[in-house]
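Hi V.,

Quick status before I head out on leave. The structure for the redesign project is tokenized and pasted below; the design run finished overnight.
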């Protein structure tokens, strides 16, 4: 497995992949935030960094992070269907913590309340719920990196 920062030519397909896996609730989030799909797509391109995860030459998935003071917020962590259930989510989290969290004291991720599989992965990785955003159906989870 190796990870590279997304190239400009990849953003549209990565965004489409994110919409595929999160469209049932991401549209509600955009509506609550008052942003259009095009505006959100622009945020995806410009805010934070997007990294693509490969197994040899095949795309396993990607993650989108943003540094906020001493917190590294993970906006999205997507593993393509054919790679799910094979430990890639955990491996990606390990890479984020080990290689992409420089200067951060906290890792943070939002998870939709209906996404039990992801929530369990994050809990097993040491994330704990810090708040619930009922208006958009998400919980915010954090992992302390100072211990």
């Amino acid at each position: 497995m190796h990870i590279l920062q997304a190239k400009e030519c990849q953003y549209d397909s990565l965004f489409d992949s994110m919409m595929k896996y999160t469209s049932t609730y991401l549209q509600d989030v955009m509506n609550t935030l008052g942003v259009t799909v095009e505006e959100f797509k622009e945020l995806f391109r410009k805010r934070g960094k997007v990294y693509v995860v490969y197994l040899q030459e095949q795309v396993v998935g990607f993650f989108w992070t943003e540094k906020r003071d001493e917190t590294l917020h993970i906006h999205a962590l997507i593993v393509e269907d054919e790679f799910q259930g094979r430990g890639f989510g955990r491996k990606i989290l390990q890479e984020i913590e080990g290689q992409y969290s420089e200067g951060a004291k906290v890792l943070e991720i939002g998870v939709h309340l209906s996404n039990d599989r992801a929530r369990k992965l994050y809990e097993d990785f040491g994330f704990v719920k810090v708040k619930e955003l009922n208006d958009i159906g998400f919980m915010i989870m954090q992992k302390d990196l100072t211990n």
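Above is the designed sequence. Residues 65 and 74 are 4 Å apart (CA to CA).

G. will cover questions while I'm gone.

Best,
W.
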